[in-house]
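Intended use. Records like the one below are meant for learning the mapping from a protein sequence to its folded structure. Do not use them to infer anything beyond what is encoded.
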Amino acid sequence: MNELNSGQKKAAEYDGKHLLVLAGAGTGKTRTIIARAIYLINQGVEPSKIQILTFTKRAASEIVTRIRSSISDQSEKSVNGSTFHSWCNHLLYRYPKVFGTEKFTVIDEDDQVSIMKMVCGDKKDAFKELRIKPRKLVDLYSYARNTKQNLTTTIKLKLLDGKPEAEQEEELQVIKPLLEVILRRYEEKKRERKYLDYDDMLQVVAVRLAKDAKARNIIGKKYEHILVDEMQDTNPLQWDLLQPFLEICNIFCVGDDAQSIYSFRGADFKNINEFGNRVPESKIYKLEENYRSTNEILHLSNWLLEQSPLAYNKKLQAVNNLGGLKPKLVNVINDWEEGYFIAEKIIHNYTEKDKYYSDHLILSRSQNYTRTLQAVFIEKKIPFVTYGGRSFMESAHIKDVFAAFRVVNNHLDEIAWVRYLTFWEGIGEITAARLISQLLQKEDIRECLDWLEEIEKLPFELLETLKGIYAHLDQLEKAVEETYKNMEHRLAMKYISDWDKKRKPDFPVLALLAKSYNSLTEFITECLLDNSTRINHSPTLKKSKMKESGGDDAVIISTVHSAKGLEADTCFVLNVSPKVYPSTWSLGSKDEVEEDRRVLYVALTRAKNELYITRRTNSIATDDFFTVKDEAVESYFLNELPENLVEQVYYSQDKGETRDAPISNNALDFDFGMDFS
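Structure written out for the chain above:
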């Protein structure tokens, strides 16, 4: 607590009912939420009555670990930290009668798609006419629920956006009845098979607590304080989940309205922007002392927000005010010149300034903008990593094994039966469907095992695998080991191309993971919840690890939306050009343009000491040179950029970096380097 600045200390020691802490980039948001928990415990609040909510399990684990390490009394270590989904899963698992969720199975996004495919098969006529892929249908369904939009609004926003109003209404009359048929059947299918998807988990808890005073009383006794991290990323459904607790708990939220950039995933800017109006007995405090960046970087970031019609009323100031380098606005002809400029800078820093590759972070609106850059890095032999791809629990070989766990846990899990049965050589979809039709009529998994034992010509390992799991329900580590032993040969054949190096090493990890859980239901659900995170918060690479191994040092290439929590000594923000910031897709919507501004703000504030902003002069069509009527050019965020905030340079591979003549800030008239002869 002695290490807090005055703003952090004031927030941590707040003695009112509800508080929103507007914590600007790099202002110690995590430290403040940890300090709040420690303060409450020191004031006599039982740690078990403090619930911390985050968006990733990694963030929750980090916060809880740091709280526990700061508590001197070793007996008081039961503070709770989890994601919204894990928290709801805990409530449903612990209080099934309160929420009416006995014997339900949680399903992930891939399972949702599988169910939707079944539904589309049931409703062939509607699906054929609709011509929307099952995964897209799941996305529409989830977006509508998380944002609490009706079907009409969802269709207009996600399928018909940008079309004239008359055309929208005409298409809506065709699309809506077809979608309604499919989505209603999807919900029926979930009920029939006792499935809960991620959105169901939140909604079941939110609705029951909102409507049932007895349920609020039961759950309310468990919590006194709820601490919410990254409040700006919450969606309307998560807001509904928090609302009942305004009566029964103290709510402490930390976030930054200037970093609200996930509306396309359902996040609602209003949850944080209108907190004071929505929440009675609440106050709003601000954190503006930045521990990450130099003042030169923060002056540019502050200027960007000041141009907004929205009142953020927040101005970051560097704690270390020793002076630094001005951000550089680098004008390049095209993406190849951009790539060579960045490569040269990184090589220079690595060879001449003794910096690591991992001291460099490259941020882009889309990975599509980085393809040329990656090609240049390969050419120049610069190691790099990109953020994205599937997580451990989303890997196909792990899902194959989990299919076996799931059918033992819930014999009505049709999706898991399909995956598990067709996994074995010689069993196709037709045979699997015939078997499943009988299995779903059995009373429990024991009866299923007895019935399968009577069937000839089934692979021996198919039944042995399920028997092994069933025999070790109280020893999950042993259950994993038995499952792997029985499935190993088939797994190795199915994934022969990368089995030894990439997939096989995962199973000892899975067995170790299983030791942490007391029941098969909990093990399945918590592991599947790893896939529920909509926002990718990836950890930075550690220098100590690089020094030891020598092989893990790499430049990080990330989209801005995957960069929350990242920072680097030197940061390159790619292609900050007209029609990209803001994007042409955002024009016409003030809310979307302002979200694009916040996306750029997040990117700028990742840099510690050096910031390079590239813009491509070929991103503006030739006819835009002679007009100021193009909305994309007029709206360009770096128009009218004060000269004292950045150092402008022009780069070409032949000439290198030049600063001989100032280049105008205006997108319309800086030197494009074109030859009109």
